[in-house]
Write a structure and sequence with these properties.
Elements lengths: L1 E5 L4 H12 L3 E5 L8 H9 L3 E4 L6 H10 L2 E6 L6 H6 L1 H21 L4 E7 L22 H19 L4 E7 L1 E3 L18 H9 L6 E4 L11 E2 L1 E3 H13 L4 E7 L5 E2 H12 L5 E4 L14 H7 L7 H14 L1
Parallel strand pairs: 1-2, 1-4, 2-3, 4-5, 5-6, 6-11, 7-10, 8-13
Antiparallel strand pairs: 9-12
The protein binds UDP-4-deoxy-4-formamido-beta-L-arabinopyranose.
UDP-4-deoxy-4-formamido-beta-L-arabinopyranose binds next to α7 and β8.
Family: Belongs to the NAD(P)-dependent epimerase/dehydratase family.
Protein name: UDP-glucose 4-epimerase
Keywords: Carbohydrate metabolism, Isomerase, NAD
């Protein structure tokens, strides 16, 4: 029995593969390297080689069927998808076709092969400008970008599939801000080009590859005026997926995977400097369009129902992110 991991060469996918193999699971990893690198698979093998890999685009139904007919799949964890908020505004169709299309086709092939365990990688972005802390039972508000809409639509599609098929067991995991890297430093967040996200930008500045961090606005209604987010260590997030997979049961169950704590941009910068003994030069600039002021989770449901709670702190995140940057 194997677990199919789509996007398994990606940042969160690869860390989840490590956590799953540590628990003895055998994996079938799919990736088309649209936002990841083949070298990640060599690094994965150094940690654990209990997987087979296929270079497959999950929107390719035929290729997907070949994988399902060659392996006895017990369940799937669906990471594959584009995730750059700004890019989704510029190229909405790419995002709808890829993110929503891949979810529909994967669910369709699962139904055909009677695979009824489905963990879906969603995002806190679906909450829109709700009141913090975000709770799973909240009414979702429109997001500020097509990326967020693709996650909200995919969630609704999976709910409808579960209504039609009472054997379907779906766990929807809404991530907050994943950062950091596996303690080995072998895998981590390695975006192509100039990073959109805060932590990889900080590590590139610390390394001298980028001149300084631009802090997008310090006039938000927060203690130091900069944006607040719920940063979660990627290995805590990975372990959250293992817990969700183990607890899969019929119907649709939604969980926030966050720490429940908010950290501002400047607090993260100072934590990084303290953890690694290195200066991070920055400049306050204009707000980034589409950003919300404050976002953090009520993470109590995952603890109650999955027995999972994030255990790594912001210093661990900063230290592990820096180690990976220096080993890459
Ligand atoms: C964090 C904070 C910025 C960069 C996005 C997606 C979310 C998820 C994670 C996919 C904000 C500030 C950032 C910089 C800055 N992705 N910032 N200078 O936007 O909270 O979330 O990535 O699942 O869905 O929406 O993450 O890291 O881009 O920003 O000041 O160079 O850092 O304004 O307050 P975000 P982020």
């Amino acid at each position: 029995m194997k677990i199919l991991i789509t996007g398994g060469a990606g940042y969160i996918g690869s860390h989840t593969c490590v956590a799953l193999m540590e628990q003895g699971y055998s994996l079938v990893i799919l990736d088309n390297f649209s936002n990841s690198k083949p070298a990640v698979l060599d690094k994965l093998r150094k940690l654990n080689d209990n997987f087979v890999f296929y270079n497959v685009d999950v929107t390719n139904e035929e290729a997907l069927e070949r994988v399902f007919s060659n392996h006895k799949i017990d369940g799937v964890i669906h990471f594959a998808g584009y995730k750059a908020v700004g890019e989704s505004v510029a190229k909405p169709l790419n995002y709808y076709i890829n993110n929503v299309g891949s979810t529909m086709i994967l669910a369709k092939v699962c139904q055909k092969y009677n695979v009824n365990k489905f963990v879906f990688s969603s995002s806190a972005t679906v909450y829109g400008e709700n009141k913090v802390p975000f709770k799973e039972e909240m009414e979702l508000l429109p997001t500020t970008n097509p990326y967020g809409e693709t996650k909200a639509m995919s969630e609704r599609i999976l709910m409808d599939v579960a209504k039609a098929n009472p054997n379907f067991a779906v766990s929807i995991l809404r991530y907050f801000n994943p950062v950091g890297a596996h303690e080995s430093g072998l895998i981590g967040e390695d975006p192509n080009g100039i990073p959109n996200n805060l932590m990889p930008y900080i590590t590139k500045v610390a390394k001298g590859e980028l001149e300084k961090l631009r802090v997008f606005g310090n006039d938000y209604p927060t203690p130091d005026g900069t944006g607040i987010r719920d940063y979660i260590h990627v290995m805590d997030l990975a372990e959250g997926h293992v817990a969700a997979y183990k607890h899969l049961r019929k119907g649709v169950h939604i969980y926030n995977l966050g720490t429940g704590k908010g950290t501002s941009v400047l607090e993260l910068v100072h934590a990084f400097e303290k953890a690694n003994g290195i200066k991070v030069p920055y400049e306050i600039v204009e707000r980034r369009p589409g950003d919300i002021a404050i976002c953090y989770a009520d993470a109590s449901k995952a603890e109650r129902e999955l027995g999972w709670k994030a255990k790594r702190d912001i210093i661990d995140m900063c230290r592990d992110a820096w180690r990976f940057e220096n080993l890459t």
